[in-house]
Queue: 4 jobs
Job 1
Amino acid sequence: MLDLDFIEIPLYTALVMLGALVGLGATWLYLRLRLHRAATLRVFLDGAIIVFVAGWIGARAYHVATHWDYYAARPDDIAQIGIGGMAMRGALILGFIALIFYARWRRFAPAKLLDATAIGLAIGQAIGWAGALVHGANYGIVSDSQIAMDLPDLYGLVAPRFPLQHAEIILFAVLGLGLVLRAFYKPQPGMLFVVYVLIASAANFALAFQRGDETLGWSGLRIDQWVDLIGLGVVLLFWRYARRGGNVGIN
């Protein structure tokens, strides 16, 4: 618990909020370089609020839907965001939809907004996963591997576990740094977003086999993994079409 004298904030919530703010700052800095009109304070904040609200709703709704057995028995916990339970995939799905609609409304190039968002997301997720680590959320499976660490699950039960949260922190920290460095070379609009989705989806698909928290599944895979596969497929089709010179409709 983070005690600020006038209010106490769960450390999980504080780190997730910090990740969101840092990611937002990184997004704004990129837009200052590549899309000045979208970086004006009023326009940027309008878009950020719309995307954040959509992402927050999507994140909570996705988590509740994929853990419905738990929440069906505890309906009062659905609104208890402070105890954990925000699914990034839900935030991405609804947030990206809101972002594209906002870009169309403002007549911005969606591809550049998606690039900026990819940088902010990678950096923000690295910090957000630190929140999952201290809270015990999204914990790894019990393992006798040499890299296993004594870690708690969401209920405080400590056991030798695959260090999933650590792996995710490293993944997104490295991905964020790589995207920032690549941005200096002024890549084709939309390419940073493509790289983000490809790496994040592929890595999370693989890491999901090491997750210890229960969720809905189908045909031997978690629903999260199916979403990752769909994301990979969509982006690969977009990339292939773009390389052939097609009009993908987001430039």
Note: The chain has a mean pLDDT of 87.
Job 2
Amino acid sequence: MASWSFLTNHARVLVHIAGDPAARLRDIALTLSITERSAFRIVDDLEKAGYLEKQRNGRRTRYSIQAELPLIDPVASSPSIGEILALLVPVEALQMRNEGD
């Protein structure tokens, strides 16, 4: 098994949140084998870049992905976040999550 990944941790966090918009940072960190602090920083980066919006509901947070935004990639032809997520997350999972809003 390779010791590297085609997807950055930022992409992996985004994919995880696409599958579970109510995921806790602790769960994201455990699933992706990163620290909770790293998960926090990545979510913060994604929020500051406009890719995520957070909604607080009591002590829980629910995330919304701004799927229409283009990727930040100076080489690629800039597909949208939604187009990339459609390749990585089963469509049924995305539809079910969106209907739960």
Note: The first helix runs from residue 9 to 19.
Job 3
Amino acid sequence: MLNIRNVLIIKTSLIFGYFIFALSACLAWGASLAWGANLAWSAELTQTIAAIKPSIVGIATFQKMRSPPVNFMGTGFVVGDGTLVVTNAHVAPESVDAEKMESLVVIIAKGNETELRSAVKVALDKEHDLALLKISGEPLPAMTLADSSTAREGQMLAFTGFPISMVLGFHPVTHRGMLSSITPIILPALNSNRLDAKMIAQLKKSAFTIFQLDGTAYPGNSGSPVFDPETGNVYGIINMVFVKGLKETALTQPSGITYAIPSNYLRDLLQKK
């Protein structure tokens, strides 16, 4: 005969078994939802990449007698009427050597072929490290700017550009990541020894916020558009030099953090053009 103690043990075992079964079912259900969400997110990104790739260009200088003739500077993307290209101000050179027939160009990827088009700088915003170029030839597909003030921490984003210049071939590369922080471009220095001329000059200007991403960008990615994976609308512009130089002065070694300038500053530049 079963005594009360054995009955309690059996009931406890059954309850524990049901609990484990229910927990496993919930975890499996949650995993399937997450997998489904990731699958949908990946499908949307796949379609968006195909749509925006014709808008991604390289920024370079060209001199026919130089070896190599093309000096790659960074990434840019097409906006507006299709003849305007956005990049970082530090990417577009302040001047070219006209005496040696050097010129500013954009590089357009066309499969395994490339096309060079001449470009001229038509607007500059050094405070936010933005430059606007006008290119020759027929209009290219333009990207749409999002309202970057609507961006939220935790939002998933992607960026496309030409990392490590043309070493890996001239093919647009896409990385994805999360908007991990919306943060001031300069944090208060712990002491005056941490301040330099560049920081002091920036502090004298109007303060503004930047985006911090958990995706990894590389040299050559400066000027890449940061966009919504579903719509392709641009929320920011990758910045690998200007922001790091101000943001990471307290670090002895540069971090792997990626920064971006919000696209609303670009909207302002387009209006002033």
Note: Confidence is low (pLDDT under 50) at residues 25-37, 188-192, 245-254.
Job 4
Amino acid sequence: MLYVRTQIVPDAACVILRGQPSEASCESLAGRVLIRLGYSLKVKRVTVAFQSIDARKQQHRRQNTIRSSTLMQQDIFDASDSQLGHAVWPATYGSSPRELLFSFIIPGHMHESVRTAFGNIAYELRVTIHTCGFGINTWTQTQRIPVYRVPLEGSGWALSLTDSMCVQADWLGAVELQMVGDSVAFADKSKLRARAIVRPLQKGQMLADVGLRLCEKVRCKNLVDRFGDLRSSQHTVCEQMRKVYDPSDSLQMQPLNHERCFDLELDIPDAATGCVQYSMNTASLCVTHELTLVATVVDQQKDAHLLRISAPVQIVPTIALEASFAELPEYSKSCFDRLLLDSSTETLWPEHSNHAEAWRSPPPPPFVRFDNDTSDGSAITPIPPSYHQHGFGGYGMLVS
């Protein structure tokens, strides 16, 4: 069989840059190229290139143009300096494929992969086999490699991902809406959970429905429309609306005679599909996300009012929300050490063989310290815990 099959196998499916472009360090992108041949081939050299694909929409022609530019290139096989100027590779059917290694250093100031209505920025690995002879002299294969950016540990951006969400506002002193969440940062391919609280301030109000809506706003800083304004777009990523009925009558709306709480959730799509982009703010592009709580309230005159409150959220890669350090056990749980439970006290500490039970007794609470030098003769002095709450400065807006 006459075939040349090439497969690019990178060590990682994507490139993760840590920190802002001005502070991010370089990252390594390594992998291997597998080549399967159905016949012997005269090969001069094999190159691997890391290149960008910049697709932009033309303003007048209304068509997409794809432009590729090679950022870095590496020769992983070169036989041009040999006596024949090439090397003969035998067929590989029935045996393992030929394997060649490659490695690139990706600079930290590189732009992230993004797919918007104004243009796309993507990266790919491209392997090219240069042969000699008649007919086709080059064989190419490409594979997309996305580039993402996550905050640097300890930076202000990383600390902002740990904030909680709490925003509230009232409408004409009649109804108060509140949206509460554990975090303002969410990963793609995950569930966004938030609690909606509808609190009546006056009697006679009725609730028709309540729901969540996640919107994405894209603003291009180097493109303007015919009026001279910056080009921008907005679309709804996902939403969920829940009808609210009276428990005694399924055809009637629920009266707001007391506070109502609803646990709502949204399914965030995969960023690789292009339905949602990661939050970013670069020199040329700004992508922001907004979570909106929507509720329909009917007043005493049977007029329906659509109420909304919004809070900014961030969509980040999953690795940005994962801790990079191991979680140490609490001091109150150190008595469950496997070493102490599985080993006898005589083996570990022969001099304390008479106090075997003392080693298995639980330690004191974490907020208690021992002080034998107290003036009143007390041996234990309690230390009150400190309470630190990370608030989130969201913004609320009610529109009827």
Note: The helical segments are 156-160, 318-321, 338-342, 345-348, 356-360.
